[in-house]
Amino acid sequence: MNPAEHLASFGRISYDTAHLIGAVILMMSFGLLYQRRLTAVIRTYSLQAMVLALAAAWQALVQDAPHLYASALIALLFKGIAVPFALNWLVRRLGIHRTVETALGIGPTMIAGVGLVALSIVLVLPVTASSTAMTRENLAIAMSVVLLGLLMMITRRNAVTQVVGFMSLENGLILAAVGAKGMPLVVEISIAFSVLVAMALFGIFFFRIRERFDSLDIAYLETFRGERR
Protein backbone atom coordinates (compact mmCIF):
# COMPACT_ATOMS: atom_id res chain seq x y z
CA MET A 1 0.00 0.00 0.00
CA ASN A 2 1.48 3.34 -1.07
CA PRO A 3 1.43 6.38 1.26
CA ALA A 4 -1.56 7.94 -0.50
CA GLU A 5 -3.64 4.79 -0.09
CA HIS A 6 -2.52 4.44 3.51
CA LEU A 7 -3.56 8.04 4.23
CA ALA A 8 -6.94 7.54 2.55
CA SER A 9 -7.53 4.34 4.53
CA PHE A 10 -6.71 6.09 7.81
CA GLY A 11 -9.03 8.94 6.83
CA ARG A 12 -11.92 6.53 6.29
CA ILE A 13 -11.24 4.74 9.58
CA SER A 14 -10.98 8.01 11.51
CA TYR A 15 -14.24 9.26 9.96
CA ASP A 16 -16.15 6.04 10.64
CA THR A 17 -14.87 5.79 14.21
CA ALA A 18 -15.63 9.42 15.04
CA HIS A 19 -19.09 9.01 13.51
CA LEU A 20 -19.72 5.85 15.55
CA ILE A 21 -18.61 7.47 18.83
CA GLY A 22 -20.77 10.52 18.16
CA ALA A 23 -23.76 8.29 17.38
CA VAL A 24 -23.28 6.47 20.71
CA ILE A 25 -23.26 9.80 22.57
CA LEU A 26 -26.47 10.77 20.76
CA MET A 27 -28.11 7.44 21.65
CA MET A 28 -27.15 8.05 25.29
CA SER A 29 -29.08 11.33 25.09
CA PHE A 30 -32.15 9.40 23.98
CA GLY A 31 -31.44 6.96 26.80
CA LEU A 32 -31.61 9.84 29.28
CA LEU A 33 -35.02 10.80 27.91
CA TYR A 34 -36.25 7.21 28.10
CA GLN A 35 -35.17 6.34 31.64
CA ARG A 36 -37.80 6.47 34.38
CA ARG A 37 -35.55 5.67 37.37
CA LEU A 38 -33.29 8.35 38.84
CA THR A 39 -30.35 6.00 39.38
CA ALA A 40 -30.61 4.83 35.75
CA VAL A 41 -30.59 8.45 34.57
CA ILE A 42 -27.38 9.17 36.49
CA ARG A 43 -25.80 5.94 35.26
CA THR A 44 -26.66 6.75 31.65
CA TYR A 45 -25.19 10.23 32.02
CA SER A 46 -21.99 8.71 33.40
CA LEU A 47 -21.72 6.41 30.38
CA GLN A 48 -22.33 9.34 28.03
CA ALA A 49 -19.53 11.31 29.69
CA MET A 50 -17.16 8.35 29.39
CA VAL A 51 -17.93 8.02 25.68
CA LEU A 52 -17.36 11.78 25.38
CA ALA A 53 -13.91 11.24 26.88
CA LEU A 54 -13.31 8.55 24.25
CA ALA A 55 -14.40 11.01 21.53
CA ALA A 56 -11.91 13.60 22.79
CA ALA A 57 -9.11 10.99 22.91
CA TRP A 58 -9.88 9.84 19.37
CA GLN A 59 -9.87 13.43 18.07
CA ALA A 60 -6.53 13.94 19.84
CA LEU A 61 -5.15 11.04 17.78
CA VAL A 62 -6.75 12.09 14.49
CA GLN A 63 -5.85 15.78 14.80
CA ASP A 64 -2.43 15.10 16.36
CA ALA A 65 -3.46 17.40 19.23
CA PRO A 66 -1.91 16.09 22.48
CA HIS A 67 -3.75 18.64 24.64
CA LEU A 68 -7.03 16.87 23.80
CA TYR A 69 -5.77 13.84 25.74
CA ALA A 70 -5.86 16.05 28.82
CA SER A 71 -9.38 17.12 27.84
CA ALA A 72 -10.36 13.45 27.58
CA LEU A 73 -8.90 12.75 31.03
CA ILE A 74 -10.75 15.72 32.54
CA ALA A 75 -14.02 14.58 30.95
CA LEU A 76 -13.50 11.07 32.31
CA LEU A 77 -12.61 12.11 35.86
CA PHE A 78 -15.00 15.02 36.35
CA LYS A 79 -17.97 14.22 34.11
CA GLY A 80 -17.79 10.45 34.07
CA ILE A 81 -16.89 9.82 37.72
CA ALA A 82 -17.00 12.87 40.03
CA VAL A 83 -20.35 14.38 38.94
CA PRO A 84 -22.29 11.05 38.91
CA PHE A 85 -20.80 10.18 42.31
CA ALA A 86 -21.92 13.55 43.71
CA LEU A 87 -25.42 13.15 42.25
CA ASN A 88 -25.78 9.64 43.66
CA TRP A 89 -24.64 10.93 47.06
CA LEU A 90 -27.24 13.70 46.92
CA VAL A 91 -29.97 11.23 46.00
CA ARG A 92 -29.09 9.00 48.96
CA ARG A 93 -28.54 11.89 51.36
CA LEU A 94 -31.83 13.57 50.55
CA GLY A 95 -33.82 10.35 50.27
CA ILE A 96 -35.23 11.47 46.93
CA HIS A 97 -38.07 9.48 45.37
CA ARG A 98 -36.41 7.28 42.77
CA THR A 99 -39.09 7.47 40.02
CA VAL A 100 -38.64 10.32 37.55
CA GLU A 101 -41.68 12.57 37.22
CA THR A 102 -42.25 13.81 33.66
CA ALA A 103 -44.20 16.78 32.33
CA LEU A 104 -44.61 14.90 29.01
CA GLY A 105 -44.99 11.17 28.37
CA ILE A 106 -42.03 9.07 27.24
CA GLY A 107 -43.54 8.44 23.79
CA PRO A 108 -44.18 12.10 22.90
CA THR A 109 -40.81 13.04 24.38
CA MET A 110 -38.97 10.54 22.16
CA ILE A 111 -40.89 11.76 19.10
CA ALA A 112 -39.97 15.34 19.96
CA GLY A 113 -36.34 14.22 20.34
CA VAL A 114 -36.32 12.69 16.85
CA GLY A 115 -37.76 15.95 15.51
CA LEU A 116 -34.98 17.94 17.20
CA VAL A 117 -32.33 15.68 15.66
CA ALA A 118 -33.85 16.25 12.22
CA LEU A 119 -33.91 20.00 12.91
CA SER A 120 -30.22 19.92 13.86
CA ILE A 121 -29.32 18.19 10.60
CA VAL A 122 -31.39 20.65 8.54
CA LEU A 123 -29.81 23.66 10.27
CA VAL A 124 -26.18 22.58 10.64
CA LEU A 125 -25.31 20.74 7.40
CA PRO A 126 -26.12 23.61 4.98
CA VAL A 127 -24.28 26.15 7.15
CA THR A 128 -21.13 23.99 7.31
CA ALA A 129 -21.11 23.00 3.62
CA SER A 130 -17.53 24.24 3.20
CA SER A 131 -16.21 22.12 6.09
CA THR A 132 -15.05 18.52 6.00
CA ALA A 133 -17.59 15.72 6.25
CA MET A 134 -16.29 14.74 9.71
CA THR A 135 -16.67 18.28 11.05
CA ARG A 136 -20.13 18.74 9.54
CA GLU A 137 -21.58 15.53 10.94
CA ASN A 138 -19.84 15.99 14.29
CA LEU A 139 -21.43 19.43 14.65
CA ALA A 140 -24.85 18.07 13.64
CA ILE A 141 -24.60 15.33 16.28
CA ALA A 142 -23.34 17.81 18.89
CA MET A 143 -26.23 20.18 18.18
CA SER A 144 -28.64 17.25 18.54
CA VAL A 145 -27.14 16.38 21.95
CA VAL A 146 -27.49 20.02 23.05
CA LEU A 147 -31.15 20.19 22.01
CA LEU A 148 -31.95 16.82 23.60
CA GLY A 149 -30.37 18.02 26.85
CA LEU A 150 -32.55 21.12 26.69
CA LEU A 151 -35.59 18.93 26.01
CA MET A 152 -34.78 16.86 29.09
CA MET A 153 -34.63 20.01 31.21
CA ILE A 154 -38.05 21.06 29.91
CA THR A 155 -39.86 17.73 30.25
CA ARG A 156 -38.54 16.55 33.63
CA ARG A 157 -40.09 17.84 36.85
CA ASN A 158 -37.41 16.62 39.26
CA ALA A 159 -34.59 19.09 39.97
CA VAL A 160 -31.89 16.38 39.83
CA THR A 161 -32.93 15.20 36.37
CA GLN A 162 -32.96 18.81 35.18
CA VAL A 163 -29.37 19.16 36.37
CA VAL A 164 -28.48 15.98 34.45
CA GLY A 165 -30.11 17.50 31.37
CA PHE A 166 -27.97 20.61 31.82
CA MET A 167 -24.82 18.50 32.14
CA SER A 168 -25.78 16.51 29.03
CA LEU A 169 -26.30 19.76 27.14
CA GLU A 170 -22.80 20.80 28.18
CA ASN A 171 -21.47 17.45 26.88
CA GLY A 172 -22.86 18.39 23.47
CA LEU A 173 -20.96 21.67 23.55
CA ILE A 174 -17.73 19.85 24.43
CA LEU A 175 -18.31 17.36 21.61
CA ALA A 176 -18.69 20.23 19.15
CA ALA A 177 -15.54 21.91 20.44
CA VAL A 178 -13.26 18.86 20.27
CA GLY A 179 -14.54 17.96 16.79
CA ALA A 180 -13.92 21.43 15.37
CA LYS A 181 -10.13 21.09 15.44
CA GLY A 182 -10.07 20.91 19.21
CA MET A 183 -10.05 23.65 21.81
CA PRO A 184 -7.42 25.10 24.15
CA LEU A 185 -6.79 23.07 27.30
CA VAL A 186 -7.38 26.12 29.48
CA VAL A 187 -10.96 26.23 28.17
CA GLU A 188 -11.60 22.63 29.20
CA ILE A 189 -10.04 23.23 32.64
CA SER A 190 -12.21 26.31 33.18
CA ILE A 191 -15.30 24.36 32.11
CA ALA A 192 -14.45 21.53 34.51
CA PHE A 193 -13.99 24.04 37.32
CA SER A 194 -17.30 25.68 36.43
CA VAL A 195 -19.02 22.28 36.54
CA LEU A 196 -17.66 21.62 40.03
CA VAL A 197 -18.81 25.05 41.22
CA ALA A 198 -22.23 24.44 39.63
CA MET A 199 -22.48 21.06 41.37
CA ALA A 200 -21.76 22.67 44.74
CA LEU A 201 -24.42 25.32 44.11
CA PHE A 202 -26.90 22.73 42.89
CA GLY A 203 -26.26 20.67 46.03
CA ILE A 204 -27.06 23.66 48.25
CA PHE A 205 -30.11 24.38 46.10
CA PHE A 206 -31.34 20.79 46.47
CA PHE A 207 -30.96 20.85 50.24
CA ARG A 208 -32.88 24.12 50.49
CA ILE A 209 -35.73 22.86 48.29
CA ARG A 210 -35.88 19.61 50.23
CA GLU A 211 -35.91 21.47 53.56
CA ARG A 212 -38.64 23.87 52.44
CA PHE A 213 -40.97 21.58 50.44
CA ASP A 214 -39.91 18.04 51.46
CA SER A 215 -39.61 17.24 47.75
CA LEU A 216 -37.53 18.14 44.69
CA ASP A 217 -40.54 18.29 42.38
CA ILE A 218 -40.44 21.78 40.83
CA ALA A 219 -44.25 21.87 40.78
CA TYR A 220 -44.04 22.87 44.44
CA LEU A 221 -42.03 25.94 43.46
CA GLU A 222 -44.76 27.00 41.04
CA THR A 223 -47.39 26.52 43.74
CA PHE A 224 -45.31 28.55 46.19
CA ARG A 225 -45.11 31.43 43.69
CA GLY A 226 -48.90 31.26 43.20
CA GLU A 227 -48.66 30.08 39.58
CA ARG A 228 -50.59 26.86 40.25
CA ARG A 229 -53.50 26.02 42.47
Q: Whole-number radius of gyration?
A: 19 Å
Beta strand %? under 5%
- Rough shape? globular
Helix content: over 70%
- Structural class of the secondary elements? mainly alpha
Task: State mean pLDDT (0 to 100 scale).
Answer: 76
Number of helices, counting only DSSP H or I runs of 4 residues or more: 8
Number of E-state strands: 0
- Main beta-sheet strand count, sense and barrel state: none
Distance between the termini: 73 Å
Spans of at least 5 consecutive residues with low confidence: none
Domains, number: 1
Order of helices and strands: HHHHHHHH
Question: Can you tell me about this structure?
Answer:
The protein starts with a helix and ends in a 5-residue tail after the last helix. It is an all-alpha fold and 229 residues long. The mean pLDDT is 76. α1 runs antiparallel to α2 and α2 packs antiparallel against α3. The chain contains eight helices and no strands. Helix content is 82%, strand content 0%. The chain has one domain.
